[in-house]
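S.,

Sequence below, as promised.
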Amino acid sequence: MAHELEQRDGKTSFVSVRQPAWHGLGTILPDYVDARSMLRIARLDWEVQFGDVYDADMRKIPNYRRTYRSDNNHTLGIVGDRYHIAQNAALMEAAEDFAKAGKDYGIAFGLETAGVLYDGRKVFVTATFDRSLYVGGDEISPNLVLTTTHDGTGATKVFISPTRVVCQNTLTLALRDATRSFAIRHTESADRKLASIERQLDMMRAYYQGFEAKANELLEQVFTRAQFEELVKSLVPIAEDPSKRAKTLAENMRDALFDCRSASDLDNIRHTAWGAYNAVADYADHHAATRGANKESRLFERTFEDSDLKDRALELILAAR
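The prediction came back faster than expected:
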């Protein structure tokens, strides 16, 4: 199961509105539904519970507990006794809270996808905005992503993920005075929770305004093939006396970056800084992320991650002016 989506009873624990995902699995809904319905259809309608942990001699281990699924008793992880469970329902309700608050805040969006990864160790829900951004004819789709883990390996996260629609590149720009990731507090009162969401919507709107301005700034910046070659050399340095394998890997990566720059969807922006950044994003999302046995899984989860390669590329591109 390279995509790592949960499959049980012959069904996939994933739902998408209108558009099927790249893997072609799960349930496709004709229109948006409420959080409770999406929770059920995505097969997220189970809870995480605590259980005791025992050693080989069946003695209870103090200060540790296991997390397990209420529907099948499957152990998800071993956590400390201070670990707080973020239930699937709470995550989905938080996504719906954002959607409801956003409508009164000039940022309307609906719940778009939800699913279960790694047998329940990680779950996610995404929402899409009601309008796209356009940079030089490129459509950029703003997405809200909420994700949490149940095995103690990660916190509950909320972040925004701009995606270039034509090729599904995730385009995260590091912006001054603009935040794109947030924390969910499940223990807050309803009033404080709403106030927190409104603050986060403010930051979200500021990020997208900054993103649009920065992207258009990059679009106006000329970036020649010679500059791109220097960018590639900086991103993929080759040591003075590398091993044959290291040199081959570096040269292959450089060639792949140039191939990305030559893609037909960059025809109108190829000689701009925006085009250079998109070429690196294409490599990071669809080439660097797809090496190894679990390439589909890593590509799927690229939506949930930032990329050091993209960050370094942006820094170098801006410095080239």
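The first strand starts at residue 7 and ends at 8.

Coffee later?
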